[in-house]
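Quick one: examine the sequence and fold tokens given here and explain what the tokens say about the fold. Here goes:
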Amino acid sequence: MSKGGIQFDPKAASLIMREEVERARQLIINHIRINGQNASGRTIASLKVEQPSEEETILWGHKPFGVLETGRRAGKIPYGFRSIIRQWMKDKGLHGTPIPYKTDRAHKYTPQERGDMSMAGAIAHTIANKGSKLHRTGGTADVYSNVVPDTMKRLGQRLIFLIHQSVGSIKLNNETV
């Protein structure tokens, strides 16, 4: 470009985009942990930053990522939902009240396992009929909803500063501004 024009560095802009999206990812992870929504760690592990080109940076998360703020609505549940809830309970360290047997014969499950299965069934039933507690209480906006606008604002400020540094001078009506 000619002397006095814009000497914009696309690699620097690409680096800024990557840094800001990585920062957003880390903030979202912190919010998930602060809110106590991290059980198995799969949601956090699903958050990935990709940069397919210098002009594009993407933050990926698995499909049900949105329920971190809205909760799960009532309705049709997937096959094996009770066992999914039971695994969630195990990841969270939650246990049901042990349900003792009334007979002395050999049994398939321990009293604790029976209590855990009963609790998982009750939770699955409540979610299917009423939705999750987070959904019933109106959700929250502090996992990613506040992070995205803040990231866009910071990104804009940093890119404008980069462009501002790149402008040597502007000629307007034969006067250097």
